[in-house]
Amino acid sequence: QVQLVESGGGSVQAGGSLKLSCAASGYIDTPHCMAWFRQAPGKEREVVARLYISRSGPGEPRYADSVKDRFAISRDNARNTLFLQMNSLKPDDTAMYYCAAAKVGCYAGVVSRFDYWGQGTQVTVSS
């Protein structure tokens, strides 16, 4: 059974930074996809960043246009941990952030294709 546990959320002012972590336990076969999603109140859950993991290693990260050049997804394979470095945060980045994993592929970040989810960590950015 795969479990994902996020941490690192909090409250920051606009322009600040946060680094989210997602500790994974259990086994996910390779290839698979690791991703960060977010959901703001009254809005649909959206993919923020995703990383395809093949048998030869991680592929090129993919980002939503709204976070490109500000967020960076990475992983520490030895620690089974996924990260999301968030810089130049904006009030529009305020949301619950979720770590997720999908078997086989990233499916362009379609929510329903992801098999495992964390409980979420809240990020609040004030102006």
Any overview of this molecule?
The chain is an all-beta fold and 127 residues long. The protein is built from no helices and twelve strands. Strands 2, 4, 5, 6, 7, 10, 11 and 12 form an eight-stranded mixed beta sheet that branches. The radius of gyration is 14 Å and the shape is globular. The N and C termini lie far apart (40 Å).
What's the short story on this structure?
This protein has 127 residues and is an all-beta fold. It has strands at 3-7, 10-13, 18-25, 32-39, 46-54, 57-58, 62-63, 71-76, 81-86, 95-103, 116-117, 121-126. It is globular, with a radius of gyration of 14 Å.
Give me some keywords for this one:
127 residues; mainly beta; eight-stranded mixed sheet; four-stranded antiparallel sheet; 0% helix
